[in-house]
Structures are given as C-alpha cells and as structure tokens.
Amino acid sequence: MVNKIWLGMLLIGFGFAAYKGDINLVTKAAFEGAETGVTVCFGLISVLVFWMGIMKLAEDSGLVAKISKLLGPVVRFLFPDVPKNDPAMGYILSNMSANLLGLGNAATPMGIRAMQELQRLNPDKTTASPAMCTLLALNTASITLIPTTLIAIRNTYHSANPAEIVGSTLLATAIATLAAVFADRWYRRRAPYPPVPPAGAANSPPPPTARSASAGWGEGT
Amino acid sequence: MIAFIPLYAFFRKIPVYESFVEGAKGGFSTAIGIIPHLVGMMVAISVFRASGAMDFLIGLAAPLVRWLHIPPEVLPLGILRPLTGTGSLAFTTDLIKTYGPDSMIGRIASTIQGSTDTTLYVLTVYFGAVGIRNGRYALKVGLFSDLVGFVAAIFVCLLLFG
C-alpha cells in the first residue's frame, strides 16, 4: 500500500512537471526533500535522546508500574474475558502506561508480549479474539500525554510555544480513544466468540510463531 | 515533569545518571533509524508539491472542506496518517516548515500527528507477531477511530486556537 502511494506520488509529480515543461524541477525538489529529511532527523536527536533517558528513569523507578496500578479498574472493564491475575493483564497494563507517556518505542514490545499472552488464551490461533481486537483498538488510537516528537519538530522550526499542542492532542486523542472503545464494544456484541477457557486450563503457551491448523469455533474448552 | 521524575527515581535509590544514559542511548538510534524513511517520504512529497500536483488535488477538494472550515492543506494527512507513520511525520514536518508551527495549519497538523497512530503498522506488527491471520473487525475499528481522531483534532484546534 505504502509502496504504491510512494511510487504514485513520484510519478504523478513527474507527470505534472513534464506537463509544465520543467523536468529539472523534479531533481531539484527531490534533493531539497532529502535534505529536509536529514535536517529534521538531526533536530530530533537531542529531544529524543533526552526524553528517552527521562522515560527510562520513570520505568526503573517504578513510576510506570504505579500508573499501571491506577489503570487497573479501567483495564478490567475493557477486558472482561481476561482472568484477573493472568500475566496478560500485566502486559496490557504496561502497554497502556507506556502509550500514555508517549513511549511509542517501549509500548510496542509490551503490546506484542500482551498479544502473545492473549494468544495463549485464544481458542482459535489464526483468528483474533475479542480481547486482541480491544488491545489493538486502544493501540491504534493511542492516548498520548506528551507528543515528544511533535514538540521537537515544532521546536526545530522556532515555534513560540512548542508545547501548546499538548492540550489539543490530549483532547483529540481522548475522543478518538472513546470512539475506538465504543466501536470495539459494538462489534464485540455483534460478533459472538467462544468464551476464553479459565487460566491454567490452557496447555503450555505455544511459541509466538505457532500456527495450528484452523480448528474453527469451539475448540479449547 | 523534568524535575520530578529524576527526583522520584533518586529517592527510590535508582542510579539516576546511569539509568538516564542507558535509556538515552535508544533515542539516538531511534532518530538515526528514521532517517531513511523520512528522506524517502520527503523526496516524494517534495516532488509532488513542487510539480503542482498537490495544489491541483487540494483545489479539487477545497470547496467542500472550506465549507466545513477545514484548511484543505491538512487533507492529505488524514489519508497518510493510518498508512505510514514516518510518511505522515514527513508530511506534517513539511506543513510546519511551509506554514509555520504556530499557524492554524501547523497546529492542526501537529495535533493530528500526535493524536492518532499508524493503524496499519500496528495491526501488521501486533497480529503478525502472534500469527493471527483473521483480524475480524479490528481494522474497521482502527480506521474508524482514525477518522474520529482526524476530525476531532481539527475541531479541537479550531476551538482552542481559533
């Protein structure tokens, strides 16, 4: 998909420039674009290095764990079919906390771990369980408190107040997340799925790459 | 935040400096890692814009969105955002560079970029990691929340900064 869009943009740009009779424009624009790309990345280094250092402190000091504890009731409401003390819960919580803090890079590994634990509870290994869909919905909307990268870019271009978008981002992301949760609940009711077997009843967790043959509904109880 | 987190960590007897440096290392590789993506996308956007193709497309959609008080310049971002994180980041950067970070377009673009995520990437990575082939309604929910986030970002900005 991205491949086609990328090529499409280049070709359409080329076509328009040819139509205008100024092909050199393409070469010039291409190198300008490349330069901007590198300049922006270098501008990002300072802010990213600093914030990721701070966030590591938040993680090591147990601050992320604390936020996880606060989120507990919310997560139990969102994932009613995940057993209360299942390891999946822990990973879901750390994934959400990392997302909240804008730790995109830390959120992904935890999200994948959560998915693996949910897969262990999933009776049909090739089809997403409702809990998996909910986790995904939360991650695509991704509540964000501090959009670090954006503040960095605004800083690079001399914004008078680089952080002024924190409030608007928080509000917009909250609305998007609410929409995701409602849509998820709506689909969840419409598309029935066999109940998750109680914790411990499932056999040893399969490796993440395991692909059992599609066994259809009702397997695993 | 900047003062609180290190202090909190210090009182929890964490080796603050070492811990900071260890996390900070990741920041450098992240920034370097997105260079190829950003350069690739910036080249395509730059060519697309300089050739006049962008203005042509925006011109087509302009009457409708202007009627809704939406700056037409941010429209491509709504399509790009769920597809490619670095691509939309490049586009946002381009908008901020062209119109200024404190313009309405700059603020809206920043908010859109910050408030939704690359649905297709998240879907591929998360489901791919555990071998899920049938994602059921997950993509629909993801795209729906992207759309809501896009519209919400615009109206929140018009409300807060307008």
TrEMBL record, chain A:
<protein>
    <submittedName>
        <fullName>Nucleoside recognition protein</fullName>
    </submittedName>
</protein>
<keyword id="KW-1133">Transmembrane helix</keyword>
<feature type="region of interest" description="Disordered">
    <location>
        <begin position="195"/>
        <end position="221"/>
    </location>
</feature>
<keyword id="KW-0472">Membrane</keyword>
<feature type="transmembrane region" description="Helical">
    <location>
        <begin position="91"/>
        <end position="112"/>
    </location>
</feature>
<dbReference type="InterPro" id="IPR011642">
    <property type="entry name" value="Gate_dom"/>
</dbReference>
<keyword id="KW-0812">Transmembrane</keyword>
<dbReference type="Pfam" id="PF07670">
    <property type="entry name" value="Gate"/>
</dbReference>
<feature type="transmembrane region" description="Helical">
    <location>
        <begin position="133"/>
        <end position="153"/>
    </location>
</feature>
<feature type="compositionally biased region" description="Pro residues">
    <location>
        <begin position="195"/>
        <end position="209"/>
    </location>
</feature>
<feature type="domain" description="Nucleoside transporter/FeoB GTPase Gate">
    <location>
        <begin position="42"/>
        <end position="151"/>
    </location>
</feature>
<feature type="transmembrane region" description="Helical">
    <location>
        <begin position="165"/>
        <end position="183"/>
    </location>
</feature>
<feature type="transmembrane region" description="Helical">
    <location>
        <begin position="36"/>
        <end position="54"/>
    </location>
</feature>
Automatic annotation (TrEMBL), chain B:
<keyword id="KW-0472">Membrane</keyword>
<dbReference type="InterPro" id="IPR052549">
    <property type="entry name" value="SpmB"/>
</dbReference>
<feature type="transmembrane region" description="Helical">
    <location>
        <begin position="28"/>
        <end position="48"/>
    </location>
</feature>
<dbReference type="InterPro" id="IPR011642">
    <property type="entry name" value="Gate_dom"/>
</dbReference>
<feature type="domain" description="Nucleoside transporter/FeoB GTPase Gate">
    <location>
        <begin position="32"/>
        <end position="132"/>
    </location>
</feature>
<keyword id="KW-1133">Transmembrane helix</keyword>
<protein>
    <submittedName>
        <fullName>Spore maturation protein</fullName>
    </submittedName>
</protein>
<dbReference type="GO" id="GO:0005886">
    <property type="term" value="C:plasma membrane"/>
</dbReference>
<keyword id="KW-0812">Transmembrane</keyword>
<feature type="transmembrane region" description="Helical">
    <location>
        <begin position="141"/>
        <end position="161"/>
    </location>
</feature>
<dbReference type="Pfam" id="PF07670">
    <property type="entry name" value="Gate"/>
</dbReference>
